[in-house]
Amino acid sequence: MKTKFQETISRANEVIFRYPMILTMALLASIGAIYLVETELNEIASYIKFTICACLGISLMFALKMLSQRIGKEIILNVLGILFLIGFYFILPDKKNRFTEVYAYIIAIIALLSHLLVSFVPFLEKDKELRFWQYNKNLFINTFLTAVFTGVLTGGVELAILAVDKLFDFNFHDRIYRDTFFVLAIFGSSFIFLLFNDKGLNNLEKDGTYPVVLKFFTQFILIPLLLIYVTILYFYSVKILINWQLPRGWVSYLVLAYSTVGILALLLVHPLKEENAKSWVRIFSKAFYYTIAPLIVLLFTAIFTRILEYGYTEPRYFVLLLALWLLSIVIYFIFSKKATIKFIPVSLFLFGAFALIFPYLNAFSVAKRSQKAELMDILNKHQLISAGKINFQKKVTDTIRNEIADKFEFLAERKQVEFLSTLLNEKDQAELSDNINDGTFYSINYSIQNKFSDVNITVNKRPYEMNRLVLVPEKQVVEIGNYQYLISFHRYSRDPQKLNDDQFELVDQLTENSSLKLKLNSKEEIDFEPQIIRLFEENKNKNGNVKVPEIAMESDLGKYHVKLIFSEMTREKYADDDKASMYYENVYLLVRLK
User: pTM of the entire structure?
Assistant: First the structure.
């Protein structure tokens, strides 16, 4: 037992000293995630940025570690990695509500690129095909084992904490379960993964016996799935030819899914290709790429049908880019006599980098230019431009109005304020600028819709359409006046707050039971729901951001007189739903003795 314990400690120490940067990033990511769910709204953006960069740093630093084990220069590579993460931190926005979908795409691409880098960066030299496969196979297996071990460990520790809490009446705060999850899920999984990787590159690329389970998994799971996919796709292609109709948009995702599963299957059984001249893997690999060729025609037809009708957006750009990448894969493996599987991750990395940073032709530049052109085409086609500005008094259908509003929101999120301002008068320009500065892009959509005064309703309101009303006080300064105390509550924090020997608790059930109660010592309470409902009723025919003098309500509670002040309050209601969702972000409680 003692020997096993010492061996475990020794292995842990080896991992710590061999992979310090990776573990540091994992620890920082865990800490960032914990603070992220516990901070006030005005501080949360910095924690989002910090946590994202730390999470990206885990895979990036692992890739650089593998490269350093091949070429040396570990310190220089680590410095370059840290400088990249610092630079990326400052690229991200400094306010939470400015984290638009554009940044989601950027973060997703960077995450993909960092993981692709792990897969090939130690093998940029030629003639290392088998070692490249062994390396990635071991990474794949270690990732799977890490997921299993981490899941069991996290569940076991959480259950142990629960048992101690219930059996010994410790009354742990719910926070301990959440924090434990973050630490084990991020730092713990990274540590376990590094334990499996042992000394790193030398162990990962070492020749080993081919795992029979991979052959079984490919033959009896992946290949049957491929047969199902390709049968559906070919039958659908025949249906298109018979009916002579354009393909549906979602067929693109099925073609990409078929291609991805097929490429994964080929990679998993790659070494078996050389077993004999009539290897089923050799036959399958050639047949697979030929089956993709007709589907690529279907894929491009589906993509360009949507692009020609609605223009480019980032998702359509990425689907097109994946189609081009898939085409390059098919051409390469059909016509190249010395094809290498390293081409797959390296080419995908280059396509991803192109989409992210290539001047003028990157995803974001193309999407902005395309949607600007689409907006101007709609305005000119329906003669809505007068003296260079949009004529909001001219009659339009609700479909056209909504398209214009959607494109305004799209371009506003991408900081095209100068272009959009040229289409509006001075008053509307100021409103647009305020919304962009505040990060309330959804309000721009509602605002543009509301500016059209003569709208012909062509269709009934669709059930998934949502009415969103956000009440915002004209003044964000909280005036304390003759109150003695100020207590801050947050929407996501339900912790009771103590004042002297008394305890105040805000019980938010606005959406569930239309109730917002303030409790004193769990005995006395006041429900502010009637005042909240009255406030929304006064603005019931409005949507978007609506400024009001203040969002405040007051009452007596026990020996105190209290006043609730909200920084903003939102109500959302879908067309087919009688019930509305109501929520807030920050709320301040002013208290004084009666």
Answer: 0.80
